[in-house]
């Protein structure tokens, strides 16, 4: 589940487990890391929190 909540946050939960929070990393996750977490969950393996992120995009 991908959800947005106030304060310009972006969070990703898988099966109720928070696996990424923009408020904690100040950026957005890499797609490969998100796909890896989804695959691990699908395979019944433990999902680790995503801690790497890219800087948020800036529109000038």
UniProtKB/TrEMBL annotation:
The keyword tRNA processing does not apply. The keyword Cell membrane does not apply. GO terms for biological process: negative regulation of apoptotic process; positive regulation of filopodium assembly. It holds the Pfam family Rdx. InterPro entries: Selenoprotein_Rdx-typ, SelW_related, Thioredoxin-like_sf. One of its GO terms (cellular component) is cytosol. Keywords: Redox-active center. NCBIfam families: CXXU_selWTH. PANTHER family: MIGRATION AND INVASION ENHANCER 1 (PTHR15124:SF27), SELENOPROTEIN W (PTHR15124). This is Migration and invasion enhancer 1. It comes from Bagarius yarrelli.
